[in-house]
Write a structure and sequence with these properties.
Number of strands: 6
Shape: elongated
Distance between the termini: 44 Å
Order of helices and strands: EHHHEEEHEE
Structural class: alpha+beta
Low-confidence stretches: none
Radius of gyration: 19 Å
Number of helices: 4
Strand content: 25-35%
Helix content: 25-40%
Mean pLDDT: 90
């Protein structure tokens, strides 16, 4: 699987943490994870070796990976395991992947990276079935 259009949000993360530590924003402003994101982290997230930069707790940060794409239809925006991404990349022409880091105890969350995966081939056109009224 080859990623393209990779965007790393490390500078934005660093700026947010600098604002927090300088007192320009409160922890309530940056530790505002949505309940659905916290639930996704609990049941579908992948633990990392990093600790939370805000609460510095014992629990590791969790990465939650979302996939979006027109070809996915109703399953666009669904949480996916990292191990499932190569199969999706081989099956679809273009999917956008977003990885969010989450601290479940304090609610810290930040977009870490986004990238595009897929075959890069044009989407296959669906053939419309003719109905009796069309003939």
């Amino acid at each position: 699987m080859r990623s393209r259009s990779v965007i790393d949000y490390a500078l934005a993360r660093r700026a947010t943490l600098a604002d927090l530590f300088a007192g320009r924003v409160s922890s309530l402003d940056v530790c505002d994870a949505h309940p659905y994101l916290l639930r996704a982290a609990k049941y579908h997230g992948e633990p990392t070796s990093k600790r939370c930069p805000v609460c510095r707790g014992a629990d590791p940060l969790i990465h939650v990976t979302y996939t979006y794409g027109d070809e996915l239809g109703e399953s666009s925006g669904r949480v996916r395991a990292t191990k499932d991404l190569p199969a999706l990349a081989a099956r679809y022409s273009e999917l956008r992947v977003y990885v969010v880091e989450v601290c479940r105890p304090c609610g810290w969350n930040h977009l870490i990276t986004s990238y595009v995966i897929g075959t890069g081939e044009p989407k296959a056109k669906r053939q419309h079935r003719r109905r009796a009224a069309d003939t």
